[in-house]
Amino acid sequence: MIPSRKFFSETAIPQIYNKVKSEVKEKLSRAERVALTCDVWTSQAKESYVTLTAHYRGVCEYKCVCVCIIEINAQEKFTSLCSTIEEYVSISVCVCVCVCVLQR
Asked: Which of 1, 10, 103 is nearest to 50 (CA)?
């Protein structure tokens, strides 16, 4: 039997999300240096988003991972972006990213 939509939305997907999130945080915490890039873009539905990507060196190669995609239609979304950056990297980076986004 195929599991229900509720199972996927409330159990399976959150478990996968939390597992991947933990793995990314672990890899970033072990990286000697992490560079963050952000990109502001607009969907076809005219909704604005910012994507935050972390770049770091793995064991034998450079890696990059999308840390978050956040809709930026209100000031509280910037707070959400800052919280995400703080969670994955450090608070000192947060100010720079938000200033870049606000100036666009």
From this structure: 103
Query: 78: domain range?
Result: 5-103
What does each of the 104 residues of the chain score in pLDDT, given as a tens digit?
889 999 999 999 999 999 998 888 888 888 888 888 888 888 899 888 888 898 988 778 888 888 888 877 655 566 666 777 777 665 444 444 444 444 44
DSSP codes joined into one string, the chain: -PPPHHHIIIIIHHHHHHHHHHHHHHHHHH-S-EEEEEEEEE-TTS-EEEEEEEEEE-SSSEEEEEEEEEE-SSHHHHHHHHHHHHHHS-HHHHHHHHHHHHH-
Domain tally, the chain: 1
